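Archive entry. Fields below.
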Amino acid sequence: MKNQLEKAVLEVLADLGVTDAKIAIEHPEDLNFGDYSTNASLVASKKLGLNPRQTAEKIVEKLNAKNILQVEKIEIAGPGFINFYLQADFFEIEVKNIPKLGKKYGSNDSRKGEKILIEYTDPNPFKQFHIGHLMSNSVGETMSRFIAFAGAEVKRACYSGDVGLHVAKAIWGYQKLDQNYLAEKKDKVPVYDREVAMLSHDNEGAFWGLAYTFGSSEYDKEGAEKAEIDQLNKVIFEGKDEEIMKLHKAGKAVSMKHFEEIFKKLGTKFDRYYFESEVVKDGLTIVTENSKGIFEKSDNATIFRGENYGLHTRVFVNSVGVPTYETKELGLNTLKFKENPNINQSIIITAHEQSDYFKVVLKALSLIEPEVAEKTKHISHGMLRFAGGKMSSRRGDVITGESMISDVEEIATEKIKERVMTEEEKKKLAEIVAVGAIRYSILKQEAGKDIIFDFEKSLSFEGDSGPYLQYTCVRAKSIVEKAKQAGVIGGFWNMFKTAKKAETEISRVEKIIYRFPEVVVRCQTEYSSHFMATYLIELSSEFNSYYANHKIVDKTEVTSPYRVAIAQATAQVLENGLNLMGIEVPEKM
RNA sequence: GCUCUCAUGGUGAAAUGGAUAUCACAACGGUCUUCGGAACCGUCAUUGUAGGUUCGAGUCCUACUGAGAGCACCA
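PREDICTED_STRUCTURE:
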């Protein structure tokens, strides 16, 4: 429809002698201004030397002569906008088309045949899975789904740092913390840590997290402990000390198992886990052997001088010969293409604090492997910040992803306490609602902007929230189910026969529901899902109003079948949209 | 100090250079026990400041103010 209108308007403009105008066909903000509108006369009036309204009159006259299919009327409004009102026919066809296409409704093939590798979440073993990872996962998962919805083949990757200073801190902490714990050398361990340790000793994952915190705080004291940890870092990098490597393996396994549980809950399935330990050697080879003249020595370290390219300088190999994150990044990104020679694009998603870092690394990469760098794209999202300013929770220093999920699950569980369903169903429902609430609160705003997080307010279950969307969808489905049982529509195909639009009024639901595919395109091209969030809220709100004002299931009314069709279409669009955002719709809620 | 982001009701967000700046939360007032109340209806801001570009600026440009991030051996 949009293309059809655009074509007609451009033809008319050409008739009037305006050929190079950049016009826009858009949906007016207010539904009262019609279904589509164009600023053509505003753009063209200057060239014609007429005022916009006169120009608009000329254009409309010619447009009317064209008798565009499914256009009811064309009006001029405001400073000279031309508004198109569509026929009821158009909406009826769209509404009935939606259940027919089902899960595919809204998809397109703009990236058909492409292979995309997308890396996100990236939690580090030996460290906690914190809410920043939750954010990266939400953004990455939704982006993966949008790209897949464009017909591309998507591979999901997760990159984890299993070597490096943080691992040394954790292993050192594990050894010391454990010994102290057994020997009761209480003075070595801060009291608050020891208490947590006792509570969580049966939980290996938490114990490792604690070990990291302990090691890290000792490292910062810059004493003998720091030297020990630095030494340990080198030992781990060399990988020859059997006892250390055994600990390393155990700790990594505990972490990865733990992450896997969280991913399952979140609905993410990675195709490939990359580890720093498997890319570090390749990276080092690249830096020290395969890139003459790109890096230089400074204070015994190997650096890339970013200043030459308007960036900043970064260290790739430190002064004791251990490669840094930068070097591993080079190894990782070349490995990605070695494994998948046919990928069209490799996307990396991280928080924007790493944006400048990536500019430097990708610049270096472009000098070494231009074709790899060419296809590698870094996309950043904002950071989670707290209303109080501090990133503190009741319990400790960082808010972990799992504690956040379980806190929200608690609220959801409280809410469904009275429902008639099994304990298992309740648990599953609380999980779906909790993940939906969290995901939505992250994705509702433009990717790239920081989120000021207020636990009480950000995780609302009402209004502009994930559960509101889930609820509306479940409600719409339930109405359709009821209609089937009442015999209003006898099965799927019958709906297409019986669901004739029997009323002249075109509801607001109909006027926005057909825009879903356009919203999908916008999210795909601008790499942000907040357009979808805004759209789904608008649709839900309109549907709930419609529901409040119209009796939908009524066997005696001729209007009923079509109203049911509207409910069915709404449910389908909500489900597809939520799915793109990584939010599941429960059976009942 | 340098570089990069950002600034919209009490709060959190939306708005391709277009029409009367949209939505939610909170607050206050109402519907109501229905087809599923996690619902519906109503009241509540001239977009940080000052200039500029444009027929038209929350949106583009300049300066200022304020906030955040990054800037050599962490990831």
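CURATOR_NOTE: Residues 242-266 of chain A form the longest helix (25 residues).
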